[in-house]
Amino acid sequence: MKTVLLVDGGRPSPQALTACCETAGVRLTKITPTENNWQSLLTEAFGVMLLLPAWGRGAYLDPSCLWQHFLAGQYPHLRLLMTSYGQVDHPNHLDLLQLIDYDATWWEQTQEAHITEELPYFTGVDLSEKLKRFFAGHGDDSVVAVLSRIRLVVQMASRELQKMQTPYSEIYDDLVAPAQLADKWREWQNRWINYYPLFEYTPLAGKLEQIAQLTEGMEHWMLAGGKEEAPLANGMILQVLNDMREQLQQIEKQYVIQKLSHTYR
Amino acid sequence: MGITRTIIIVWSWKAAGTGEEVWEVTGSNNTNDLVVCRDWPALPNGDTQQLAALIRQYTQDGEVMLFLHRHHGYFPEHLKQLIYQIPEDQQEQLRCFLFGEGSDAIYLTNDPRGLLGTSGTFSAQLNTGGHSLEVSSIADAERHLLKGAHFDYIWDTYQLSLRRRIFELKEDLFNCLGQHLPQLTFAPGELYTLLSRPENKLMLLRLLSFVGRIRKGSEIAKEIRTFERNNNRTLTFDDCGIQLETSYGAPAAEQYALLSAYVLRHVLAKGNAVSLPELRERFDDLLVQISGLTYHS
User: Fold this and answer.
1) Among B146, B169, B192, which residue terminates a domain?
2) CB within 8 Å: B179 and A14
3) Minimal CA–CA distance to A248: which of A125, A148, A129, A110?
4) DSSP code string of B218-287
5) pLDDT, tens digit, for every residue of B257-266?
6) Domain carrying residue A162
7) Residue B236 belongs to some domain of the structure
8) A59 and B295: CB-CB below 8 Å?
9) How much is the pTM?
10) In this complex, how many residue pairs, one in chain A and one in chain B, have their CB atoms less than 8 Å apart?
11) Torsional sign, CA B85, B86, B87, B91
12) Count of domains in chain A?
């Protein structure tokens, strides 16, 4: 029996879909992309099925482009399968109102991710576009720009404290307090909260979840405006910011930069 | 110079708020944008001439979005009246909305990218994770300037709102009915029985609102507003047909009339059997007549 990993996109998956798949020799296994274990299931899987459009943050969302990119890059022989209540003309799309049409032959004829060139259009917020804005250098949607400003202040303060041995009271008065870290942190949180839940049903959900957990460790320090010396002196704050930056850079490299270069090729 | 975009907001500006003013908008793409604040409660005799004159003043130069606060006594009939007081060649430039009772995107308290704060102002305090955060759409209070990003967000959100609400109604309805697959045909009255179950109550109310069968002030009107507040979503359709006609033309209104009649007779009553592919087809026929995007990415 083939195994297909189902991402239900926050929507109720019809029992009849599971039954239809089983009749064709396909076992649907629901996965939760925010959890860590789903990637280990990919090696044995036939494909990933998305119930589209996904629902999150009060809007319908289209994560298909991010999944296609992920699979084509890392698991090119898996299929990206799409199911919806829409009439969509695509070899990998399964119409929930025509379940009777999808026998074992149909499954065999679906395309592997490295072959699929153009994805069908699904009404919903295009999450690949959202992700680009997430990383854009400026503008109201840029989450990374705000984080970079915070990191710059922390990096300078750390250097002064650890390398120049400047007393923290002086660093705080001259650098940290004027930077209004608490306000910057709230601005970051404000943008982050608007963004990261949108990606709950995408392959990068786990990484974003890790970043969310990292932020908790320094929230208290940030909201207090960076008054406390110890977390800065022991390098904890800069370490967390560096870890966050590294995670974000990995996401950018995998889903934004590579994608752009692919498009321009 | 781009086209003038004006948002007229009839709300409680006078009592404790910023007053009846005209605000400009910052940003190079927003030089012609305006927000006009008026505190005009609906007149007891239903006369909307003063408001219509104000709208005409701005539709001459560009597009207008009118927001009428429900607590000022406005209801869908006012929208219908107003649209027909605008010259026919300018009607396409006007979009009218009722707002209030808490759930709309225009409020900063619901969406930090919104416009309206609390008590007739453009600012509000948000509580996030136990912390208080000041949000405001004002760029420069002295010069009466609002932030371009907030203006654009509200303009775009409401411009898409009708298509989006109909699309979401369709998807949510199929979420609900999809649980009965592979059954594709429902006997007369079967769907109404199904939708009357407590777990489907919200869907039933949304369909009733879509077909214009919820009376203002009724118990079910209050119930659906409560759902809206709790879910932070606009789920109701105030005078959907008239808004479609004026914004998207007669074909959209005709498709709405067909779908609405089908839902009313066969989904919400014991008319004929309902086939899910046919129901989907009718929704698609309507959506195809509503041009433009459903969401901004």
Assistant:
1) B146
2) yes
3) A148
4) SHHHHHHHHHHHHHT-----TTHHHHHHHHH-HHHHHHHHHHHHHIIIIISSS-S-EEHHHHHHHHHHHH
5) 999 999 999 9
6) 129-264
7) yes
8) yes
9) 0.81
10) 69
11) negative
12) 2
**Residues of chain B found within 8 Å of residue A9, distances taken between Cβ atoms:** none
When divided into structural domains, chain B yields a total of: 2
Please give the residue range of the domain that contains residue B50. Answer: 4-146
Cα Rg of chain A, angstroms: 22
B147 to chain A: closest CA residue: A140
Of the residues A93, A123, A153, which one is the last residue of a structural domain?
A123
- DSSP 3-state of B14: coil
Q: Longest C-alpha distance within chain B, in Å?
A: 64
- Diameter of chain A measured on Cα atoms: 74
Which positions of chain B have pLDDT values less than 50? none
pLDDT digits (tens, 9 = 90+) for B12-29: 999 878 899 999 999 877
Strands of the sheet containing A47-52, edge to edge, are: A26-30, A2-7, A47-52, A79-84, A93-95
Q: Which pLDDT does position B160 carry in this prediction?
A: 76
CA angle B18, B23, B27 (to 5 degrees): 135
Residue A173 has pLDDT above 90, yes or no: yes
pLDDT confidence of A137, banded at 50, 70, 90?
low
Of A190, A189, A186, A191, the residue nearest A133 (C-alpha): A191
B142 shares a domain with B189: no
Question: Do residues A177 and A202 share a domain?
Answer: yes
The pLDDT value recorded for residue B2 is: 62
DSSP B199: G
Residue B171 shares a structural domain with residue B127: no
B293: closest CA of chain A, how far (Å)? 9
Residue B294 lies in a domain: no
